[in-house]
Amino acid sequence: MSAHGSDRAQVTLGALAAKKDAGEPIVMVTAYDYPGAQIVEAAGVDVVLVGDSAAMTVLGYDSTVPVTVDEMLMLTAAVRRGLSTPLLVGDLPFGSYEASDSLAIATAQRFIKEAGCDLVKIERGGTSVDRARALVAAGIPVLGHVGLTPQTAASLGGYRAQGRTADAARAVIDDALALQDAGCSMIVVEAVPSEVTAALMPLMRVPVIGIGAGADADGQVLVFHDLLGLYDGGAAKFVKRYADLRTDAVSGVAAYAAEVRSGEYPATEHGYSMPAAEAAELREMLAGR
Ligand code: KIV
Questions:
Q1: How many CA atoms does the CB half-sphere of 283 hold within 13 Å?
Q2: Tell me, what DSSP letter sits at residue 114?
Q3: Contact 208, 197 (CB under 8 A)
Q4: What per-residue confidence (pLDDT) applies to 2?
Q5: How far is 253 from 258, CA to CA, in rounded Å?
Q6: 73 lines ligand 1 (CB under 6 A)
Q7: What pLDDT does 232 receive?
Q8: Ligand 1 pocket mutation, candidates 57, 211, 225, criterion most atoms within 8 A of CB
Q9: Beta carbon of 91 within 6 Å of any ligand 1 atom
Q10: Given 114, 190, 264, 281, which residue is catalytic?
Q11: pTM for the whole thing?
């Protein structure tokens, strides 16, 4: 039994390493609130990421760039309250870790202390490799993110696949290896040709989670709103929809609106009643007003 009372054993970094060694795929998904966390818990996923994709999926920004540490902490803490067994990864937002090791450590410590994260995620190679090394030295497990890194999509030429030439593929692989050498516990690889992932995998000791990176990674991650069809926006090529909850939700709310307007809702069974004598007394009390 896990520390939170679930029958399923708590997922640990050791358990993920064992899955990698056994060739057993690792399932990771995003979540952004308490009911979402309860859903992914019940579905039995291994790792939950409160991604800064929350900027778009739940906060309505048009990129991940504007979301703040306080906004991410509030969402991440809500997810923590709904989870028992999966590993919880907090996503350090743009501008909250890049400038210095001490900034990265101070921000990451808030995600661990205030939101109960097991790991934090940072994007890119380059200076993020130094930040990852500093975080690991400070005792904070880190998930690195390479390939398409949405926080710096503008400098990558927009939201597009990365590593499509041999040189560009080599750069993605070098970033992943540098993050692994810096002590990252896991790496996400986003939007790269499957050939790049296939070339990377024999070089990686830590689990690699793909998103739009083909089938060779140790696991896959998708955005909750994308896979459930909740998000009313264009989805990336790699998204597979497993449900159409937005359509169901719109028709549910429309049915409620129609019943309120027609008087069909609420019916007697949706209300409360008082003893007849009390109702009579109330009418009498009000009669003289
Ligand atoms: O923010 C996010 O949801 C992510 C995943 C797509 C990996 O970074």
A1: 7
A2: H
A3: yes
A4: 55
A5: 9
A6: no
A7: 75
A8: 211
A9: yes
A10: 190
A11: 0.94
